[in-house]
Amino acid sequence: MSSTKPISLIVSITFIFFLQSSSAQTVVKASYWFPASEYPVTDIDSSLFTHLFCAFADLNPQTNQVTVASTSQTKFSTFTQTVQRRNPSVKTLLSIGGGAADKTAFASMASNPTSRKSFIDSSIRLARSYGFHGLDLDWEYPSSATEMSNFGTLLREWRSAVVAEATSSGRPRLLLAAAVFYSNNYYSVLYPVQAVANSLDWVNLMAYDFYGPGWSRVTGPPAALYDPSNAGPSGDAGIRSWTQAGLPAKKAVLGFPYYGYAWRLSNANSHSYYAATTGAAISPDGSIGYGQIRKFIVDNGASTVYNSTVVGDYCYAGTTWIGYDDNQSIVTKVRYAKQRDLLGYFSWHVGADDNSGLSRAASRAWDATAATAIIIQKV
């Protein structure tokens, strides 16, 4: 028997929105790869990324030209072709420098118009000859007002050069990016934010390495998104400093690590943040990849903790304590990046992941943003 009385039907329809590619960068879901990780390029699941960085090309301090070590030339020259087999639309960038690079060589190069031109012209030639879609500068870090000013000049000239090269060659313009300090304030030395914003397609904000055995004698979140005290470093503080200084949110890409740091606790019964330690554990500097962390947890029956206040994870077994990012931290950071209307996220580095688990979680978190529409229908 059917009723003749009006009834209200509430229908919830969920729409999944996917960002579409265009001539402008609409999203960056990226990671770095480097040969010393011994992770085969063929193993990268490039379907999880929009961009991949091949690291690192070197700066020759005598010629100021960008070069690739002879042992890496084959892998670098075939990098784009290899990762595009699984994802033909993925873009690749050749990254120059790195944390181990000679900072004085970059400072010297950037200080002179002739040496800047040598760097710029050779970087473009190398990127084109190896089939990369862009270039990434990882100078860690310009450390004086003069060096920051020269950094800005270098970026402006680099931008002009890639635009001119694209015009003369008829090819798409090379992308330009840079990996920078998590904050625009590098120990009281300010980045040239306007030059960065005008010259680069985006910047990778390295929001990690906040705590580590080499520079902190207590345990701490290596890549906290938030710091409740507002006194220490955090990803959110870095994003705010850059955007408040004038960097458009759509040119900011939030970085997070696929590795953590291990300490040896002074007291096995004190295993939260800011516990006293006696130094590094597991490796000489305490660094340990996410895949290795997962193995440590299983092999040692380690306890795991997710801290939603800072957005970070840690685990401990006996006197060994490891701070890192697990799935929930990564997903929360990706959602934060999207809520703040950032361009996207990147990780260091793809080879440290555990069977692409973190990369998969990050990609899904970005893509599966849903909106629910309620339709009320009277019958």
TrEMBL record:
Keywords annotated in UniProt: Glycoprotein, Glycosidase, Hydrolase, Signal
CDD domains hit by this protein: GH18_plant_chitinase_class_V (cd02879)
Family matches, as Pfam families: Glyco_hydro_18
Cross-referenced PROSITE patterns: GH18_2
Keyword Membrane attached: no
GO terms for biological process, alphabetical: carbohydrate metabolic process; chitin catabolic process; response to abscisic acid; response to jasmonic acid; response to salt stress
InterPro entries: Chitinase_II/V-like_cat, Chitinase_insertion_sf, GH, Glyco_hydro18_cat, Glycosyl_Hydrlase_18
Gene Ontology molecular functions: chitin binding; endochitinase activity; exochitinase activity
Signal peptide segment: 1-24
Top-level taxon: Eukaryota
GO CC annotation: extracellular region
Residue span(s) of domain GH18: 27-369
Family according to the record: Belongs to the glycosyl hydrolase 18 family. Chitinase class V subfamily.
Protein name: GH18 domain-containing protein
Lineage summary: Eukaryota, Viridiplantae, Streptophyta, Embryophyta, Tracheophyta
